[in-house]
Amino acid sequence: MKEVPPGECRQCWTHAYDKKIHRRLGPREDCPECVDHMIHGHGSQIVPKKKSTWW
């Protein structure tokens, strides 16, 4: 699996690109972890961006 890029949410990225996470769900069944994440937000799951060295 790809590494989570800076500025992205670890959970969102993992659930989008790891197909085995949602494999257990039935057709048109929502992932409880994704629904909870949408309601409560990203929290501390965002990968920090590197500081810009342009200045």
- How far apart are the termini? 34 Å
Q: Let me know the largest β-sheet.
A: none
Low-confidence stretches: none
Mean pLDDT: 90
From N to C, what is the helix and strand string?
A: HH
What is the total tally of β strands? Answer: 0
Class inferred from helices and paired strands: mainly alpha
Number of helices: 2
Write a short abstract of this structure.
With 55 residues, this protein is an all-alpha fold. It contains 2 helices and no strands.
Layout of SSEs?
Blueprint: H1 10-17, H2 32-40
Describe the fold and architecture.
The structure is a single chain. With 55 residues, this protein is mostly helical. Helices cover 31% and strands 0% of the residues. The chain has two helices and no strands. The chain has helices at residues 10-17, 32-40. It is elongated and about 50 Å long. The protein starts with 9 loop residues before the first helix and ends in a 15-residue tail after the last helix. 0% of the residues are buried. The model has no long low-confidence stretch (mean pLDDT 90).
Short key terms for the protein model shown above:
elongated, mainly alpha, single chain, 55 residues, 2 helices
